Amino acid sequence: MAFVLLAIVVAGPWLAPYPAELTSPQSLAGPSAEHLLGTDSIGRDVLSRMIIGGRATLSITVIAVVLALLIGAILGLLAGYLGGAVDQAIMRVLDVLFAFPAFLLAVAVVAALGPTIPNLILTIAIVYTPSMARVVRGPVLSVKRWDHVEAARSVGLSEFRIATRHILPMVVSPILVETSLMLSRAIFTITALSFLGLGPPPPDPNWGGELSSGRQFMELAPMNVIAPAAAIVFATLTFIVLANGLRDRFDVAGQR
Amino acid sequence: MRRLVLVRLAWAIPILFGVSIVSFLLVRALPGDFAEQVAGTMPGATPEMLDQQRKNLGLDGPIWQQYWSWLTSAFGGDLGTSFATNRPVTTELFGRLAVTAELTLIAAILALLLGGTTGLISARLRGKAEWIVRGLNGFLVAVPNFVVATLIVLLAGLYLPQLSVFGFTPISEDLLANIGSLLLPALSLALAISATISENTRAAVLEVSSQDFVMVARAKGLRRGNILRRYLIKNSMTPVITVAGLEYASLLGGSIVVESIFNIPGMGQLLFDSVTSRDYPVIQGIVLLVAVVVVLVNVAVDIAYARVDARVSYE
User: Fold this and answer.
1) Any chain B CB within 8 A of the CB of A101?
2) Nearest CA of chain A to the CA of B170: how many Å?
3) Per-residue model confidence (pLDDT) at position B315
4) Which of A149, A200, B88, B221 is 20 to 30 A from A115, alpha carbon to alpha carbon?
5) Is the pLDDT at B57 greater than 70, yes or no?
6) Cα gap B306→B193, rounded to integer Å
7) Cβ contact (<8 Å) for A100 and B257?
8) Which B residues 208-247 touch A at CB under 8 Å?
9) Does CATH number 3.30.479.30 belong to domain B89-308?
10) pTM, 2 dp
């Protein structure tokens, strides 16, 4: 499953049978040999728009989550390792951010910044940084009391080196699990934003936008809705399965 | 008990302060000047009018002073005036809040009923039923609520064209019709959450079943129904309540999209409209209000937690 998504991101434009903007005389056609998933209201090939739109949706998701991962991991590491006042300060700020439903925060931030691709990436990164920080902080708190950290300190290694070389590697597995879970949630946020018209600007396709615009004639051409719906579910499911696989592999307890 | 309530409320106060700062900054950090935004709605504004506007809005002082005056008037129930309708934001909000509260409440009840029953079934029956439920749960968590909503609308349009899915009946008109009109949107919100609740119920019931007091009850020869009701369900409630409370925030978030799909005049739809028309005071009001609701729900969940499980205490 993950390979299908990867192929869409890497080779999308070459995989798609037609360019996303190419219109054909038959609009709202059902599936046929020419157009495997039919065409939309102005005769564009649905399959091609799915593949090219998936590229936009997935790359925004992945870049945003990587950004959230970096910031969140740094904050979590700082909070967990330094403890005390730093920890208190960071965690209180995160508590505040947790009070906002993720999607509400996303809508409000996009509304404030304006829906461009960089802003969307930034928004999703902001929304998911707190949970990453929290996930990193937990294990750091216990790892920093382990013997090898004590040993590293007694040898006189710098704090920075201890934190990055001796603590960070020990908390990689919960980070990986959380990252793939976060991907599944971020794909919800970006597609829902696009669905509301707050996604990447048109006319470039993306899954949420296609789902929304497909609704107009969905009784005539159900494929216009079913295809993006299936794509979104497929991607979400992939990331969840990935998370579960990683969790079993690393034996991370389902703690938050 | 009273002590517990006080402790939790004391915890909530700094969070609420932070929430108000974020809501304030979210809008004030906008590119451009708040006064220009306001004046943008009045044609032919001159620089002098802008200055006057800044004075009126209290925008000429330092930022912390602005925040303080915004906060104190928010406490007095004044959240500013909507750009779009020129009515007070509070007036705009409260009717909408009631609709959204009702929608999310129905969704929460549906999710608890669906998730609770399926979780109990999969834990008690095991075997095939368990795998069907768990497979379904695994799939449902991956289906976003707006996808469910769109598919429900599609299916209704294809197979039940006489059913009006979009109609919303106000509660003042007809209570039953009102609940009926919220049922499908609530279901779209509830499905993914019911899957989470179902999994958690299953885990909780399995854990409780293996504990000594259940075995003792069984050894005493109590009837199965009795054991189920008096021992299992009651003791499995704690984790389930927590999850339900945590998921309430996501219900509120999800209502934004679902309300605009089903055309329900709730807070989500108002937020969507305000974002489209750049009605910043309303956006600010909604963000603040929803976050306050989420914090209070969390406090309520913690208190409910302690009521159900006597072992929980906060010292």
Assistant:
1) yes
2) 24
3) 40
4) B88
5) no
6) 23
7) no
8) none
9) no
10) 0.79
**CA B254: distance to chain centroid?**
8
CB pair distance less than 8 Å for A211 and B150: yes
Mean pLDDT (whole number) for B218-243: 73
Residue B31 has pLDDT above 60, yes or no: no
Across the range B237-245, mean pLDDT stands at 74
Weakest-pLDDT range from A160-169, A174-183, A239-248, B164-173: B164-173
Tell which residue, B62, B73, B145, has the closest CA to residue A211. B145
Q: What is the pLDDT of residues A132-162, one digit of tens each?
A: 888 888 777 777 777 777 777 777 777 777 7
**Is B15 at the interface with chain A, CB within 8 A?**
yes
Please report how many Cα atoms fall inside a 13 Å half-sphere around the Cα of residue B63, on the Cβ side.
8
CA distance A100 to B287: 8
- For A104, the closest of B14, B158, B290 (CB atoms) is B290
Fill in the DSSP letter of residue B223: -
B250 vs A contacts (CB less than 8 Å):
101-103
| A49-253: CATH, from 3.40.30.10, 3.40.50.300, 1.10.3720.10, 3.40.50.11190 | 1.10.3720.10
The whole-angstrom separation of Cα A167 and Cα A146 is 9
State the nearest Cα–Cα gap between B85 and chain A, in angstroms: 19
DSSP H helical ranges for B62-174? 63-75, 89-125, 127-140, 145-159
| Domain edges within chain B | 89-308
Where does the pLDDT of residue A67 fall: very low under 50, low under 70, confident under 90, or very high at 90 and above?
A: very high
Judged by CB atoms closer than 8 Å, whether chains meet at B18 and A109 is answered as: no
Interface predicted TM-score of the whole assembly (ipTM), two decimals: 0.77
Q: Would you call A100 and B19 a contact, using CB atoms and an 8 Å cutoff?
A: yes
Gyration radius of chain B over CA positions: 24
Q: What are the chain B neighbours of A95 within 8 Å (beta carbons)?
A: 15, 18
Q: Looking at the partner chain, which of A105, A108, A218 has a beta carbon nearest the beta carbon of B157?
A: A218
Q: Which residue in chain B is spatially nearest to A184 when comparing CA positions?
A: B142
Domain residue limits, chain A: 49-253
Q: Which of A111, A211, A237 sits opposite B142 (nearest CB)?
A: A237
Q: Which amino acid is at B241?
A: I
Contact A99 B295 (CB under 8 A): yes
What region, left, alpha or beta, does residue A100 occupy, with left being phi > 0 and alpha being psi -120 to 50 degrees? beta
Burial B2-19 (b: 16+ CB within 10 A, else e): eebeebbeeebeebbebb
Distance CA B49, CA A235 (A): 52
Burial label, B232 (beta-carbon count in 10 A; 0-12, 13-18, 19+) = buried
User: Which two three-digit tokens encode residue A19?
Assistant: 């360019």
Q: Who contacts A205 (Cβ-Cβ below 8 Å, separation ≥6)? A: A20, A49, A50, A52, A53, A56
Burial per residue of A65-77, b for 16 or more beta-carbon CB atoms within 10 angstroms, e otherwise: bebbbebbbebbb
Interface membership of B252 toward A (CB under 8 Å):
yes
